[in-house]
């Protein structure tokens, strides 16, 4: 098992050939993803909840869609924050002391997913039947 704050290397999106453009995924970010996934699985199947790491934050999306952010984990700084989204998709960063504090915001996370499910617009419409089905587990996270 990985120790707390142990890093897992993952290729950066748009990465370069020099190897300097790597993202470091913290074990704490993976734990946070699992907590968010456990919270919102009452609303959607877990296969629809996808993690995407960036240089600034660790994003958790519905259907691997940037227009459907569920939460952001801002763990790459001294103070940790959970980014939650309102009905206008405006992010509010809430200070947290650890991953377990995410549970304090379970209602907000479930409401965010519920809004996406009930307010499907043109950008959120399901893909046509002849479109290839996305991989239900696209998260490139390997955890022992």
Descriptive keywords:
144 residues; alpha+beta; five-stranded antiparallel beta sheet; two-stranded antiparallel sheet; 2 helices; 7 strands; globular; disordered N terminus
Structure described in brief:
It is built from 2 helices and 7 strands; from the N terminus they run E-E-H-E-E-E-E-E-H.
Describe, in plain words, how this protein is organized in 3D.
- The chain is an alpha+beta fold and 144 residues long.
- It has helices spanning 27-40, 106-118; strands at residues 7-11, 22-26, 49-53, 58-62, 69-74, 80-85, 91-96.
- It has a 5-stranded antiparallel sheet with strand order 3-4-5-6-7.
Assembly form of the protein: single chain
Radius of gyration equals 15 Å
The backbone outline, from C-alpha atoms, is: globular
Q: Mean of residue pLDDT?
A: 78
Count of beta strands: 7
The major β-sheet equals: 5 strands, antiparallel
Unreliable stretches, pLDDT < 50, 5 or more residues? 1-19, 122-129
Helix content: 10-25%
Query: What order do the SSEs take from the amino end to the carboxyl end, as H and E?
Result: EEHEEEEEH
Distance between the termini: 5 Å
In percent terms, what proportion of residues is strand? 25-35%
- Report the structural category: alpha+beta
Strand order of the largest sheet: 3-4-5-6-7
Number of helices: 2
């Amino acid at each position: 098992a990985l120790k707390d704050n142990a890093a897992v290397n993952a290729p950066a999106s748009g990465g370069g050939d020099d190897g300097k453009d790597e993202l470091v995924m913290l074990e704490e970010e993976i734990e946070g993803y699992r907590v968010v996934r456990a919270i919102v699985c009452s609303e959607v199947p877990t296969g629809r909840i996808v993690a995407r790491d960036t240089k600034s934050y660790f994003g958790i999306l519905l259907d691997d869609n940037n227009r459907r952010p569920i939460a952001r984990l801002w763990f790459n700084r001294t103070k940790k924050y959970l980014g939650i989204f309102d009905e206008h998709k405006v992010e509010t960063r809430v200070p947290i002391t650890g991953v377990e504090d995410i549970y304090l915001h379970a209602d907000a996370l479930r409401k965010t997913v519920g809004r996406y499910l009930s307010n499907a617009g043109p950008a959120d419409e399901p893909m046509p039947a002849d479109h290839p089905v996305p991989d239900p587990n696209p998260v490139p996270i390997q955890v022992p």
